[in-house]
Design goal:
mainly alpha; 7 helices; 0% strand
Length: 158
């Protein structure tokens, strides 16, 4: 996935946000802790390296990354309710792969940002991110859920 984000700072920020939200949930640490760790240790390129080793995301736009992670965690209860409503009854939120759950939270968080890119751009960006993490049906599920959320949250754009 990381190579696909090379030269695309906003896409790289979304990749890093998904990784950070996953890490935050798995380690049960708060948003500010994980944001600080990523900014200090995972964003930016180490001198003399190719940039993507050890989970680094060298080109990530740090302000967008931090905003997505903060929004997703601060609004997680509301975002999770919307995701649950967009999922089918046989796919509860807890059943989702934790990376997919982090991706949906990040995408939903970005859709709440009225000053962000158009909804279709957000959906396409997270679909690209999903393709980097998954080879199966997860990308289709992410596309469907984010499309439903976007139509609910930004109906004027459809």
């Amino acid at each position: 996935m990381a190579q696909a984000a090379r030269g695309r700072p906003r896409t790289a920020a979304r990749v890093a946000a998904v990784q950070a939200l996953f890490q935050s949930e798995q380690a049960q640490v708060g948003a500010e802790t994980v944001i600080d760790e990523f900014i200090r240790h995972r964003l930016g390129e180490l001198p003399g390296t190719g940039g993507f080793e050890d989970g680094r995301v060298p080109d990530a736009h740090a302000p967008l990354f931090a905003r997505i992670v903060r929004t997703a965690t601060q609004q997680q209860d509301a975002i999770d309710r919307m995701i649950v409503e967009a999922l089918t009854a046989d796919w509860p939120l807890a059943r989702l792969d934790p990376v997919l759950r982090a991706l949906l939270r990040a995408g939903a968080a970005e859709l709440t940002m009225g000053d962000g890119p158009p909804a279709k751009v957000v959906i396409n960006e997270y679909l690209d991110v999903a393709h980097g993490f998954f080879e199966g049906d997860e990308s289709r599920l992410a596309n469907g859920v984010l499309d439903r959320l976007a139509r609910q949250m930004r109906p004027a754009e459809f």
